[in-house]
Structures are given as structure tokens and as C-alpha cells.
Amino acid sequence: MSSDSTAGNREAVDTAFESGDRGIVSPPPLPPAAVDEDSETAEGWIVPPPLPPVPLLPAPLEGISPYLRSQWVGGLSLAALLLAAGDSSLEQLVITLPFVSLAAWGRAADRLAASRVMSVLWVLSLVSLAAGAYGFLAHQVRVERAQSAPMPAGVPPPHGLPTDLSITLLGGAALAIAIVMLHPVSRRLAARLTPIDPSRFSHRLALAASVSISFLLFGQLALSGGRPLMIELVRLGNESIRAAASNTSAQELLQGTFLVVPALLVAAGWGSFRGFRQTLVRLGVVMPTLKQLIGGLAAAAILVIVVLSSEELLASLLGSLNVPGTDEKTFDSMMQSLKNPLGAFAVGVSAGIQEELAIRGLLQPRVGILASNLFFTSLHAPQYGLDGLIVVFIVGATLGVVRARTNTSTSILVHAVYNFILVLGSATE
């Protein structure tokens, strides 16, 4: 084919294309949104798609729904407002925050293996902190006793006063228990007796922390000869502890409750992966039925009758075994400012809400009634003797059954009414 004929064919094709000849198939038009209007559309220049907007939140928060983000912001705002109130009721929040942090580390450990090391270290830190607090109280008791009745140099402390070595050994044993409870064999055995999920690291942390701290607090009472160190300090005339306890007002107890409750909600997942209503359901806080309300009031009244009627029997039984009981006179002096209707109401509300949300709402569904109730009872060891701890264990077991068969709202009612009646009754004596 000659060059002249080739050029002619090209000219014919161009003419047919420009005239829209049906014999030539034209390329489909470009979509309007994909064509750059300022460019030569005949050559098909396409505008690249727009870049995605830069996220305003960090990547971990982008996966959280706006509702949960708003709950988180609201929770932080509420906590900031409550903390701004100040007051000595912050002590209740300070005691709660380490366990809230442990719950947060546990949830992180369920998702990230790297968080497991930090969560284990946090459990061991909590046990060490509790052992250190016990050692400090024991040291204060020794100082008070030395001032009241000086001992010659080199003479060992009297019976019922732990030595530094015994305190160190007790703390080491508690740490060892925590480590053993985290071992795979231990958690599989524990799963047969408790409702923990052995595959969930957060469940193992809860069990290890509650068992080891319970052992530590019960052990300190045994080393002290059955005499709770806090009561012993007040009896020996420690004015700082006596003033802190006897000057506690009803307002401070109620304000402390408003500080602790948001922290417990955060520990249950509020603001991180649960909404507010989901968190309440997780804690067992629901609207009780009329039957549950009546049953809760009846259970509180029965508990009061059982406890009051068994006090003398329990005291005589332990006395025959030479086991010291709770110093009622010293304990009553610490409760003097609350022995009035408003104080009884504050004690009932604060203990009922805080302890039930933490123990029966948050802990019991994970470790079961027995382990959670032992932990609940051990928290009272610094202020009660063995007789008082037996009563606390019976009350706690009853509250655990109420929580298991109904909900935490009903157990809060039982606990609050029980405390209210006992404190108000002691005020009229």
C-alpha cells in the first residue's frame, strides 16, 4: 500500500469520526464527575479521586461509635467536676482507683498480648502496696506501744505484735499466691470451682488479685493475734486516726459515693466499649420488681435479727477459745459522729452502693460468690476481730445469693437497709 493511500485512509477516518458516521464506533463519554472541565476532555484526562479527610481523633478512637465517645467525654467531665469538690472524701476514690486501673489493664490484656506484662506487674504492685500499708500500721502500733510502755532494748515485741520479718514473709507469700493463680494450671483448676473463663486474661487477674489480697489481709489479723491494727491504734491513743474516723460526716460519705460510682462504671467498661445502659446491665443495676423490693426489705430485717441474736453466743464461743473479739467500745467511738438518723442513712447508702457495685456487681460474676465474699470480708479485717468478720462473711454470703438470684439493685437495698438499722439502733443505746 502506498503512502498516499495510507494518508487518505486516515483522513477519511478522521472525517467520519468528526461527523458521527454510524460505521465508526465512538468511545463512550466520560462520566461528568470524573472529567476535569478545565482540561482537554477529548483526550480523556480524569481528575483523581479526592483524598479522604484527615481523622480528628486518634486511630484507636476512630473505631468507637460517636455515642460511646460522647459517653467517654461525659464521664471524664463528670469526674473532673466531682474531683473539683475536694474534701477528705477523696480518700474513698483513692482506694478505688488502683482496682479500676487493674480492670482497665485486664481488658487491654484480653486484646493485646503486650499489655499482659503490665497487668501482671500492676497486680503485684497492688499486693505490695497492701503489704506496705499493713507494715506501716504495724510500725505505728509498735511506736504507740513503746511510748505507752517502753520495752528494754533487745526484748522481742509482745504477743500479738508482728515483727518486720513476719510482715515481709506474709507479703512474699501473698505475691507468690498471685503468681501461682496466674499460672495456666491454676486457672484451669479455678475454672472448675468459679465462673471464670480461663481463656480471658482479665478473669485471671481478678481472681489472682482478690485471692492474694484476701490472704494478705486475713494473715495480718492472724499475725496481730486477732487484734485489728486500726482499732488497736485508736485504742492506744493515735489521735490522727481517731480524728479521721470520728470526724467523718454524713456529707463526706455521700460525696465519696458520688466520686466512687463513676470510677466503678469506668471499671465495668463505661466509655471504652460499653454504653451507659450496657454498663448498668453488666453491673446488675436494673429496676427491681415489687416482689424483689419487698423480699429485699424482709431479708434486711432477718439479717438484723440473726446478727443481733447471735452476737453474745459468738462472743462467748470465741472467748472460750481465747480468741479476742472486736473492741466494741473503741469501734463505737470511731462511729460517734454518724450515730444519728442522717449518719445512719449515709452509712447505709455509701456502703450499700459502693460495696455492692464493686463486689457483687463487678467482681462476683467473674470469680463467684465464695471468692468475692472472702475478698469482701477481708477488706473489713483492719477494723474487725474474728467475731465481726464472721458476721461480715454471713452478711456478704447472703448478699451474694441475693445478687445471683435477683440483681445488684436488690442487694444494694438489702445492704443499705441492714446498715441503716444497725447504726440507728446503736445510736439509741
Describe the structure.
- The chain has 429 residues and is mainly α.
- The chain has one domain (90-427).
- 71% of the residues lie in helices and 0% in strands.
- It has 17 helices and no strands.
- The protein has helices at residues 3-19, 59-62, 66-83, 90-111, 114-148, 164-181, 184-193, 201-223, 229-235, 239-246, 250-267, 276-283, 290-320, 328-334, 341-378, 386-405, 408-427.
- Helix 6 runs antiparallel to helix 8 (201-223), helix 11 crosses helix 15 and helix 13 crosses helix 17 (408-427).
- It is globular and about 55 Å long.
- Mean pLDDT is 79; it is low at 16-25, 32-45 and 53-68.
Quick gist of this model?
With 429 residues, the chain is mainly α.
Supply database-style keywords.
mainly alpha; 429 residues
Query: What percent strand?
Result: under 5%
Low-confidence parts: 16-25, 32-45, 53-68
- The helix count comes to 17
Approximately how much helix is present in the residues?
over 70%
Overall outline: globular
Major β-sheet profile = none
What number is the mean pLDDT? 79
Task: List the helices and strands in order.
Answer: HHHHHHHHHHHHHHHHH
Q: What is the domain tally? A: 1
Measure the end-to-end span.
Answer: 126 Å
Gyration radius (Cα, Å) is 33 Å
- Count all strands and give the number: 0
What structural class should be given to the helix and strand makeup?
Answer: mainly alpha
